[in-house]
Amino acid sequence: MKTYSPKKDELNRSWIIVDAEDQILGRLATLITTRLRGKHKPEFAPHMDNGDFVVVLNADKIAVTGNKLNKKMYYKHTGHVGGLKSRTLGQMLDSKPEFVIKKAVQGMLPKNRLARQMIKKLKVYTGTEHPHAAQNPTKLDI
After folding, report:
1. 76 domain residue, yes or no
2. DSSP 8-state symbol, 140
3. Is the pTM of this model over 0.85?
4. What tens digit of pLDDT does each residue of 18-46 get?
5. 64-78 tens-digit pLDDT
6. 3-state secondary structure of 73
7. Count: domains in the chain
């Protein structure tokens, strides 16, 4: 018996809309990661990018549990001496809520060049409007 391996021309990618309003950040990120990788499909192959496109709406209305709004920190370094900048999750949700969801999903993807292809299929928006209506996305019920 031979193991089935999907070909690149056999892939069928669909567009999915996820409403992030009142959804817990980590649970939402695992759902999105599963769809981006294609693990929900029977023809999943870990060495291929056969996942779907995911459009996340209402990114500014996510929920977090516990005291994460004040305790969870996001760090970046400018490259200069003493250039470590830190911001809390609450500050990030006020300024860049799209970044919070994208960073959570990116942390759950594998750390290789395949993940860089997968993260490009994630589209995050703060409101309910998005420019992907022509792709006929289907709404995912959570």
Report:
1. no
2. P
3. yes
4. 999 999 999 999 999 999 999 999 989 89
5. 999 999 999 999 999
6. strand
7. 1
Categorize the per-residue pLDDT at 136 as very low, low, confident or very high, splitting at 50, 70 and 90: very high
- The CATH number given to whatever domain includes residue 23 is 3.90.1180.10
Question: Considering the domain boundaries, does residue 56 fall inside one?
Answer: yes
The pLDDT mean for the chain works out to: 94
Alpha-carbon gap, residue 9 to 28, rounded angstroms: 30
CA pair distance 13, 55, nearest whole angstrom: 13
Long-range contacts of residues 69-74, Cβ cutoff 8 Å, at least 24 apart:
69/93, 74/100, 74/103
Domain membership of residue 104 as a residue range: 14-65+96-129
Cα separations (Å) of 129 from 2, 41, 58, 90, 132? 46, 28, 9, 23, 9
Hunting for tokens 């996942």 — which residue is that?
51
CB atoms closer than 10 angstroms to residue 137: 19
